[in-house]
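User: Thanks for the earlier help. One more: Aminotransferase. Can you show the sequence and predicted structure together?

Assistant: Of course, both are below.
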Amino acid sequence: MHPVYAQMGTTIFEAMSARARETGAINLGQGFADDPGPPAVLEAAARALLGKSNQYPPMAGLAELREAVADHYCRHQALDLAADEVIVTSGATEALAATLLALISPGDEVILFQPLYDAYVPLVRRAGGVPRFVRLEPPHWKITREALAAAVTPRTRFLLLNNPLNPAATMASAAELAMLADFCVAHDLIAICDEVWEHVTFDGARHLPLIGFPGMRERSVKIGSAGKIFALTGFKVGWMCAAPPLARVLARAHQFLTFTTPPNLQWAVAEGLATQDAWVQDARHRFERGRDRLAAGLADAGLAVLPSVATYFLSVDLAASDIALDDVAFCERLIEAGVVAIPVSAFYAEAPVTGIVRFCFVKQDATLDAAIERIGAARETLGR
């Protein structure tokens, strides 16, 4: 067995969702909406399945989807991308794997920001890379120049940024992004930008892609996800965007991973990107209302809720809630009360923050209300 995987357990998302299935608890752990998604995209997928080719599409993706992604980013983020700078992947995690396997040489160091998506570290290590961690602190989770300076060495080649940041539910400010761009240019780093939450932002906040900052156009890989844009996580359609010298290498790695992605889903996503801006905007407002509903209910139950400006998630601070349990023990106690959440310590590879718990709020009002009622009823036992 490869040592990266030999001692590895099941991802926290699958583990906690399995607990929800086993116990009948309300699943506010894994990040998926219980909304069916945009009907137009589902109908386009069904039409394409029945009426178009189901044989191998082009390895880099259907031309229609690559053009739709480029046009989408031109309209929404003022990026000047060509279709041949877009490589379609089977989800954003495959895009991450292809990028890291394509670019990392053994011994290359990669700066990672904790808390982080749990796929990052094993993928970096499997590619032969060496993680260099920058630890972000609640409640604001800010990136500082001092922390970056402490992490970089002469062997550092890459910076992997998740923005908006899951699980912190924060967005890097324009000033932070400008600082990161300057840092990448000064140290000749390639930025791998996991931007899957780019359309799930609240309170009027607008996502700014790092690839659009000065000096970053030729040294960035921008990763996106149709599953997040359209709340269709099971579609597993993603993409990598990069300047041609990088894109050609990314495509070579992709061809020996999944090679391609179901063509009917590609056609459906292309149609969605071209026609469903209004649905995406409405979904953002619905999710924002769910955030506010859950935040208010948790606060009424005596839990200290941290700010959430993006993603499907919000977190609570256990110490600020006068709860002496760590996040793992709290989540175990919460399952007994009939609700599943995620301990944020699972998003750290070292020196974890142990007092933060994450909840998913992109659920129907009745689901959120039932979870709030169970948490409120068990509040006293949860605090001991």
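User: Great, one quick takeaway?

Assistant: The domain at 3-37+278-382 is CATH 3.90.1150.10 (Aspartate Aminotransferase, domain 1).
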